[in-house]
């Protein structure tokens, strides 16, 4: 079992959901609401949703604990003990017209043995925890819990299945996930090799992550820019260039009129035309061919000029690794992808240097933003892979910009060019520029 995921079980909210504790002392439940995934004609019915009820039962099916995820309130009750929360991060919040329009979600972790009840928003992790209760006063009831049921009462049952349908490759309007363990904290950065005891203590190694992440790690742990250029462009070294691929890329993207600079300028102009920041751009170079096990290319070389950054985006529910091949990249990690402003402060910021790798999984580190605020052009290698169990493979990444929720296909900016032709062009334009300087 991988620590960052444990084993998530996903179920559809078009009926009552039953979850058994079995022999486990702990159970984690995640609820995510995506109103924008409901068709326009069904929105009036979806807007009837007022609350989702999570009820913990004993072996006699008597309620021991009940949590109501309601509009503008979260109510926790166990016999005579009642707590109400109105923190906007853990309630079902609406706009000024009392409509559910923004992506939102909560997680609830209950440990019967330690009597810990934890509640947070977005991804289930220590950084997103909003409330923590010790259930000592109702200990005898909590320790009797054997199962959980989850349902809603506001939308008519005959309509609910139609609301919960989605096209292949799209997110369901309501998603319920559960797993057996709450992982308090994991390092987001994997080093190629731990150098000392402190790094081992911080968990900065590739052990105990999922099989998918380990497979990606094994594929790219030794990859450097020189190896990419030699593998993809055997003619490159025969040109007699004195600079490695990283320096050629930096030169081409930074010098006005060079190949990569021209492509970048076109992307910046398109952003400006759409009303977005021209610096919210970078270059994507797909390696190999499209892979059915990933959304787009499985391996992507990404080029980050000085002051450029990405949108805040997800990764279509994939596992992934980001390896820094050159320069420095800042990574902002978010709890959830939402156009609700109060949910979109980063929960963690990392500074990744050359050789560092940061990872992502379907339910952990899935939403991030990359930024290069350092003079050297940064180059990263992105690697993606769906779980073998994934049935609904989404081919689009989703992102938020200016509080707008959008989707994009993760395509290469060099779709019509062979990789070795690109490298040869970079060498040629560098050589030509320096010939002109020497004349």
UniProtKB/TrEMBL annotation:
Short name of one Pfam family: CDO_I
The keyword S-adenosyl-L-methionine appears for this protein: no
Molecular function per GO: iron ion binding; oxidoreductase activity, acting on single donors with incorporation of molecular oxygen, incorporation of two atoms of oxygen
Top-level taxonomic group: Eukaryota
Keywords (A to Z) from UniProt: Iron, Metal-binding
InterPro entries: CDO_1 (IPR010300)
Residues annotated for Fe cation binding in this entry: 313, 315, 368
Listed name of the protein: Cysteine dioxygenase
Source species: Paramecium sonneborni
């Amino acid at each position: 079992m991988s620590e960052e995921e444990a084993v998530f079980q996903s179920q559809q909210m078009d009926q009552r959901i039953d979850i058994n504790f079995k022999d486990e002392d702990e159970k984690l439940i995640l609820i995510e609401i995506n109103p924008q995934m409901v068709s326009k004609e069904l929105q009036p019915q979806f807007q009837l949703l007022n609350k989702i009820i999570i009820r913990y039962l004993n072996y006699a099916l008597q309620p021991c604990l009940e949590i109501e995820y309601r509009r503008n309130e979260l109510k926790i009750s166990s016999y005579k003990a009642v707590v109400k929360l109105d923190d906007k991060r853990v309630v079902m919040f609406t706009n000024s017209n009392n409509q559910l329009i923004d992506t939102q979600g909560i997680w609830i972790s209950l440990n019967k043995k330690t009597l810990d009840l934890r509640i947070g928003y977005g991804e289930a992790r220590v950084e997103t925890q909003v409330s923590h209760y010790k259930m000592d006063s109702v200990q005898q009831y909590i320790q009797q819990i054997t199962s959980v049921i989850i349902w809603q009462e506001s939308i008519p049952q005959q309509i609910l299945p139609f609301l919960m349908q989605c096209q292949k490759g799209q997110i369901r309007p309501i998603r319920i996930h559960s797993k057996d363990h709450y992982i308090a904290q994991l390092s987001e950065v994997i080093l190629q090799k731990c150098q000392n005891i402190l790094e081992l203590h911080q968990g900065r190694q590739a052990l105990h992550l999922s099989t998918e992440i380990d497979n990606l790690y094994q594929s790219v742990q030794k990859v450097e820019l020189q190896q990419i250029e030699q593998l993809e462009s055997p003619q490159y070294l025969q040109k007699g260039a004195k600079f490695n691929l990283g320096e050629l890329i930096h030169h081409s993207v930074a010098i006005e009129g060079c190949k990569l600079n021209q492509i970048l300028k076109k992307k910046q102009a398109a952003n400006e035309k759409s009303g977005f920041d021209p610096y919210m751009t970078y270059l994507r170079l797909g390696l190999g061919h499209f892979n059915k096990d990933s959304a787009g290319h499985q391996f992507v070389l990404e080029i980050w000029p000085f002051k450029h950054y990405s949108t805040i985006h997800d990764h279509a529910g994939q596992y992934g690794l980001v390896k820094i091949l050159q320069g420095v990249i800042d990574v902002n990690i978010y709890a959830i992808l939402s156009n609700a402003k109060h949910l979109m402060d980063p929960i963690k910021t990392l500074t990744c240097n050359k050789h560092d790798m940061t990872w992502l999984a379907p339910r952990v580190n899935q939403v991030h933003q990359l930024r290069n605020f350092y003079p050297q052009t940064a180059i990263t290698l992105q690697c993606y892979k769906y779980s073998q169990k994934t049935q609904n493979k989404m081919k689009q990444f989703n992102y938020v910009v200016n509080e707008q929720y959008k989707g994009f296909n993760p395509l290469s900016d060099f779709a019509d060019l062979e990789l070795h032709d690109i490298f040869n062009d970079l060498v040629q334009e560098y050589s030509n520029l320096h010939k002109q300087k020497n004349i």
